[in-house]
Specification:
alpha/beta; 7-stranded mixed sheet; 3 helices; 31% strand
Length: 176
């Protein structure tokens, strides 16, 4: 997981401002001024709690964008759901708001949160002249879709490796 977490106060957006920004982003048409462009869609946000404090550095995160609202009038609008495109947009995220649902996480918990999102470019706060992409999970319709610990993942990896080596009670080692 990467350390790309930031707090919503970073951009000072509230629920009403979020709704207005999403409406503006969804009304964007191919050929409009690029300054008004933002991605909207659905994603699973994976968070790992690394420290007990409720602060930026206490979490690491990974964005898995699962759906992007197509841009109206774009000649390649159907490509918005292409797996490589979804991964490329996910990889562009520089900053990510940690949703309030993560407050209940314990250190070493790894949770997935399914949500709608708004993702837009803004001036990079540390790299003068550069742009950064901020992903803001929608304030409504968030669902904690998975709750695991780092140890759960480590155990699953050990079981997978044991199965590949034939140490799980099966007859033959499984090919990689």
């Amino acid at each position: 997981m990467t350390s790309i977490t930031e707090d919503l106060r970073f951009v000072g957006i509230d629920d009403e401002g979020y709704a207005q920004a999403v409406a503006a982003a969804r009304s964007f048409r191919y050929g409009d001024d690029q300054a008004g462009f933002a991605f909207t869609g659905k994603a699973t946000l994976m968070f790992q709690r690394e420290a007990p404090e409720w602060e930026h550095g206490a979490f690491s995160s990974t964005v898995l964008i699962t759906f992007i609202d197509p841009i109206q009038g774009a000649p390649d609008a159907e490509d918005a759901q292409d797996e490589d495109f979804l991964r490329a947009v996910s990889d562009r995220v520089n900053f990510l708001h940690v949703p309030v649902e993560c407050q209940d996480m314990q250190v070493d918990d790894v949770w997935g949160i399914d949500c709608e999102f708004l993702m837009f470019a803004l001036p990079h706060p540390q790299d003068e002249g550069a742009s950064a992409w901020l992903l803001v999970p929608g304030p409504g319709q968030r669902t904690v879709s998975s709750r695991h610990t780092v140890q759960d993942y480590q155990l699953a990896e050990l079981k997978r490796a044991a199965a590949e080596l034939g140490l799980d009670g099966s007859e033959e080692p499984k090919p990689h």
